[in-house]
Structures are given as structure tokens and as C-alpha cells.
Amino acid sequence: MLLTPGPSVGAGAAHWGGRFAAPITYVVFGLVNILVFGVHSHHDATFSFTPEFAKVSVPNLTLAAAVTCYVCGAITLVLAVVRLLDVLGIIRLGRVWRRVIVGVVLFLFIIALLAWADGGQSIPFNVVNLLSGTLDVSIPIMLGALTGVICSTSGVVNIAIEGQLLLGAFCAAIATSVTGSLWLGLVCGALAGSLVAVLLALFAIAYRVDQIVLGVVLNTLVLGLTGYLYNAIMVPYGNTLNNPNTFNPIKIPGLGDIPIIGPVFFDATIFLYITYVLLAGIQIGLFRTRWGLRTRAIGEHPVAADTVGIRVLSLRYRNVILAGLIAGIGGAYFTVGSVGSFGPDMSSGEGYIALAAMIFGRYTPFGAIGAALLFGFTTQLQSILSSINVPIQSNLLLLTPYVVTIVVVAGLVGKVRGPRAEGVPYVKS
Amino acid sequence: MTAPPPATEPPATPPGPTENDTQESKHSPFGQILLQAIQENTVTITVLALLSAAIIGGLLAAFTNTGVLHAWGDFFSAPGNAIAQAWDVAAGTYVALFQGSVFNPHTVSALFQQASFSTAVHDGFLSAVFNPLSETAVQATPLILTGLAVALPYQAGLFNIGGQSQFIGGAIMAAWLGYAYNMPFFVHVVVCVIGAFAGGAALGWLAGELKARTGAHEVITTIMLNYVMLYFLAYVLSSHSLMQAPGGSNAITLPITSNAHLPLLAGTHLRINAGFLIALAAALAVWWLLNRTTTGFEFRSIGSNTSASRVAGMNVERNWALVMTIGGGLAGLAAASVILGTDFTLNPQSYGTYGIDAITVALLGLGRPGGVVLAGLLFGALHAGSPAMQTATGTPVQIVQVLQALIVLFVAAPPLVRTIYRVRAARARGVSTTMSKGWNA
What we know:
The complex is a heterodimer.
Chain A: H1 7-17, H2 21-38, E1 44-48, E2 61-64, H3 65-88, H4 95-118, E3 125-126, H5 127-153, H6 161-179, H7 182-206, H8 211-234, H9 238-241, E4 250-251, H10 261-265, E5 267-268, H11 270-288, H12 290-300, H13 302-307, H14 312-339, H15 350-360, H16 365-387, H17 394-409
Parallel strand pairs in A: 1-3
Antiparallel strand pairs in A: 1-2, 4-5
Helix pairs in contact in A: 2-3, 2-4, 3-4, 5-6, 5-11, 5-14, 5-15, 5-16, 6-7, 6-8, 6-14, 6-15, 7-8, 7-14, 11-12, 15-16, 15-17, 16-17
Chain B: H1 30-39, H2 42-62, H3 66-73, H4 79-101, H5 105-112, H6 117-122, H7 125-155, H8 163-180, H9 187-214, H10 218-236, H11 274-292, H12 294-304, H13 306-311, H14 316-343, H15 354-364, H16 369-393, H17 399-412, H18 414-421
């Protein structure tokens, strides 16, 4: 668990964040919508919902930018009052409704931001591009976060996600370039992620090295190794070793033609569909199967698990190594899924973001995916906004998810509790 | 606010390092420490770890070299040639590293070929002899300081991955004070160095305070702060109203005024500067803090057993915040040594890879100040020698990073080294300081 036990700490968090943290945050959002975006908005904002070459076209939506911002701000303020009444005990909201309010507030904030950004622009803002791009750039983060979820649930801290992504990208590029087979590249990428996981498992479980130290060192090792091999063999033999094809998008018949939803969710590379399958598989696997129960048991209380006959160490080995495959696939996306050729430090820290997404998502598959999408969304939003010359500081936009993560981890939004035995090597007595 | 127990000095046991509960007797003279280290196989394990990493690195260098690969293609017709070529590349790599970082005989012969010694000195031939050592010291300076920034919190049980953010914090302060103000010689440097310390300390404090107040794990907050500061640096360098040099579109600050440069130590031909002395002084100060003060005793006590320290009346939370503040300040000093010592300007890549390198330095140094200095010098030598190595043998500089990671991996897992070399198990706890206490500890 991320919150250290001890009476003083719990009391401190409650006092610091306070019961009023949520309403106050909403008020801030509402005021930003009105005073920052609303006041500075001009003309009309046009949103388009149709990708290029689509069979079915959806009409563009044109809104008066300033009015939209004011409306969003007003609704947010109303929600803040509702939440305040809930805090004061005047009305009772269930957990589900509280979460819905959080979602609506964020949604309105984004609408106001986009209205402000596109107000007066000649080019309509393509919402489909934003959403499908978000899914695409989030793939490595989502897969990395799923890897992290399995490892943490099993009681092993996996900081080496970054290394797994990077080695996966490297090996997928080489394998595809040499053999010409994209599928072989995907498999090699997955195996490369697993190779890092083997090292992680060996040192963490057998030699009981501190897992945080180990993860960072493995990341350094992979970063150095791929950078070295890139310069030593990929640059001289670029045509044969670093020239892979990339997967083409596959449109799912029927589903892919649904307006808006189709092009966003059902017209992507194989990696997105793999992510869907893995997400469903891991969610069901962890919470509905015997394997999941045992995995959660060895992460929470390995001694108890051992007593009832679960082989803790072998299950940990298996989980960590199998989870490595997932991150490896995520790494393969960098090369054979999107860009093609490999570049040094290609993953550029997305493994660490995946780690944050896992914690942000409270160690659950769906939560981790949601958090990963949030990170991907800001990246994609930033790249679209800078391409339509919106006067926003892209660097400040890019740093927001990290600040949000700190705020979340600090327990100001809600306490995050991880598996109790996470990172503790199990020594059979 | 937290409601910790009132801050009383450790009551039950007499304070001070004499009642050292960690039994590592760090207060003992260096000779005794050395003796103990040898008994615990620490030195043996470390040397063997270096050896293992060097062997793997040599193999890597040899078998990615195009000439060697061609020779091995003809292995069955000329096996001797293949092996000789592989050896040449591997040995050449290490020789070039050595020449670039410690001593290059060619510079000596060049010195003696000069007509008169005085003109040779004047033309920089004498400096050329010492240039490799100077470069090693220059490269080692930020490594030692950032290594200390990881090692000191490590003694208190905290893992500071935020070297990068703290470095950037210090760098922003050092650069800003360095180019925006005009102060007299010496005063200006001192102000800039103190500013850099404060800049790094602020970020370290933030991570420590978050841990103390809310229990947020410092690994996550420091990693996140790294990214926050990375983008923040890009932001301040992309705005003319903040730190970007006027009249240009490059993301770079104005040059630091010469009064704020760290003084050179050995003439204008060599880059070695007062930053190296700062690093050594900082290591000494950290050693003194850890082994000669009550605060240091509390740090180590908390690092060994948080609960026991809390029961003994130590204010654990306050110490967490304090140790991270000092650690961050040390990383800020590293930034000062780079910005004021060698770069004289700030750009979006100024932070280099110090954040990650720091962790390898601290781990190889076993989290002890003296060890960090030695590890910093070793890795500094690798960094200093790598450009010459790349020119001489065509081995890419990234091999240095591979070597660093391999060394630390072997050092962190003594059982592995023991198994490979069949060294008997250590009598005491030895190097297994990196044994995991768990994510939640």
C-alpha cells in the first residue's frame, strides 16, 4: 500500500486534503471554464466527427465558443454545489454518482478547452482524430500498465516496464526487417519483453535484490544496450536490420462503419484489438478464476498462500515472465505498429508513465487502462493543438498528467492501496 | 497537518554514533572499515563484479564490430585470425578508454619532442598529459554529487529517483542567477552555488514532504517530478519573457557571466574546476553528517527500522523531509558544477543522464559517501574515456551505460557473483545492503 501505516499519516492526509477537496476542485474547474476559456473565446468553434474517406458522414457541429464555455462552467459549478451538499450530508450520493460527477466535470472541462482552442479557427476540430489518436498513442502505456498490474498483484514491483517496452521495440524492428514477417516481429517483441522479465524475476525472486533498484538498473541496461546496438549494427546495416514494415489498420466489418464509434474503436492496427482482448482476459482472469485468486493471494499474504499449498515462488516467476510478454507487445507497437524503424530511447519514458497509470488506476486493469488513456489523451491533444496553432504552452499541457498523478498518489483525491506484499521477497521458512 | 509525536531527541539510548544499532561501526577509523569490508567479501565481490561486467562488455564490443564479424565468418578457415581480431577490438576498447581517462603515452612523447620545456608548457603540451585525468575529474564531479543525492536518502530508507528533477531545479537557479545578475567575483559564484543547492533542495523537499504528510511513495513522486521538471525546463526555455535568450529561437539561456564561473584549478588548458572540490567536500560533509551527528544517526536508524525509530521517539516524517531536502540540494550542486563549471549556459539537454547514472553510482558505492566518490571516479573515467574510445575502435559510447548497468547488477546480487566464482559466503551481512525491504517499507 502506498500509504504508510501509522496514525499520524492517516490523520494528516484527511486534514490536508479534507472532505472539501472535491467540491473545491470542481469550483476551480468551473471558474477556469468561465474566466479563462469563456472570457478569451471568440467566434464559433466547429467540431467535425467524420474521418477522411468515411462512408457515412456526420454533420459538423458548430457552437458559439464563448457561450459553450460559460455553459460548461455553469454546469460544473452546479455539480460542485451538489457535491458540497453531499459532503455536508444534506443529500446522499452513492459512490457511482460521485464518480459520474468526476467524469462529467472532466468532460465539460475538455469541451470548454476545445471550444476555446478552436474558436475562430478556420479548420474544424476533428474529434475522431483526437480520440482514435489517443487510443493509438496510449497502446504502449496501456499494455505496460497491464503488465504492471499483473506483476504488482503477484507481489513483484516492476519498474522495468520501460526496459521491456524498449527491448520489445528493438527486437520487433530487427526481426521484422530480417524476416519480412510482421507477425514474427510481434512475437519477437513479446519475447524480448519477456526476456527482461526473466532477468527481473531471477534477480528479484531468487537473489532477492531490491526490486526498485533492480528495475531502474534493468532499464539502464536495456537503454544502454539498445543504444549501443543501434549505433554498432543498426546504423551500418540500416537497410537490412532497421527497415521494418508496419501493420496496416484492420477495419472490423460492420462495427467499423458505425459513425464516430467505428473509426475510433474498430479501425485500428492489431495492437488495439490485442489490448481489448488482454484487458478483458486479465480482468476476468484476476477476479474470476482460480489463477487470479492465487495471484492476488501471493501478492497480499504469501505466507498464508503457501500454507494452503500455493507455490508462491513458481507462480511469481510465471506471472512476471508471462506479463513481460504483454509489455513486449506494447514495445513492438513503437516500431512495427506505428513508426517503423527503431530509434534510440524510443520509448522515451512511457514505461514509467505506465507505472504511474497502474497506480493511478488503483492496481486494477480497467483503472490502469483509463489512466493510460488520460496520459495518451493529453499527448494527442497537445500534438493536435500545436498543429492548428493554438496559443497554448504545449509543455505546460504535457506536464499536467504528471502533476495530476502526484496529486492522486498523494492521496488528495482518494487513497490508493496496493497489494500488501508488493516488493517483499518471499522467503520460505 | 500531521500530528506526529512531539519532536524529542532519541531518549532511551544515549544519542550519538557510539550506540550504533546498525552494527556497521561506521564511526570506526577507515582502516577498520577496510578490514571489515575485506572480511565481508565486499571488496572481493565488487572487484569480481567489475571483472564480470568488463568481460561481458568486451565480448559485446568485439562481437558487434563489423571487422570481427567478418573474421568470424571465416572462422573455420582462419580461426586464429578470428580470435585475434576479437581480442584486438575488446582490448583496444579498454586501452582507448584508459588512454582517454587516465593517461595517454602519446601526450608524453609529444611533450618531450618540444624544443624547450617552457614553450611546451606554454603551448599546452604539459596540460595535454594531464588532460585525461582532468576530464575524469570533470565528468566525475556531477556523478559524485548526484550519487550522494541518491546515497544519503538511501541511508534513511528512501529511494531518490528524482535526481533529474532536482538537477533541473538547481540548474534553473544556477543559470538564472548566473546570467541575470552582476555581482563581484567570488560573491557571484557563491550565490549561484547556494542558489543551485536551494533549487534542488526545493524539489527534494517536495518529494520528502509529500511522503511525510501523505505517505505518497517517493519513487512515484520523484519519477513524476522528473517529467514535470523536464517539461517545465522546456517551457521556461521556450519563452523570451522567462529564460530564453532574447533575439533567437534556440531554446537556450544567455551565457553565464564570467564572474559566476567556477574557478579553474589547473590552468586554462584543463577543464578541472572548483566543482570537483565541492564534490569532495560534499562527500566529506555527508560522511560527517551520517557518522558524527545526531541527525545522521536518526537517518540511519530510520533507514534500518522505521517502526523502532518511531517508538524511540524520533520524528520519522520530519527526517524524511529533511533527508530528501539535503539530497535534492546535493543534486542541485551537481547542476551548479555542470552549468557554472563546464557548460556556462542552460539548454533542454543540460540534465543529461545524471538522474539514472546517479543511481548506479550510489549503488556501486554501496550507499556510503567514500564508496560514492570511488564509484563516481570510476564512472567518470568511463564517461571521459568514451569519446576517445569511439574514435579509436569505433565502439559506440553507449557501451559505457551497458558497463555501468552490468556492474551494478552484479554488485547488487552478491549471491550470483559468489555462484559464478565460487567465493565463500560472507560472514556478516556484507554487500547485501540492496536486499529488498519491500515497496511498502
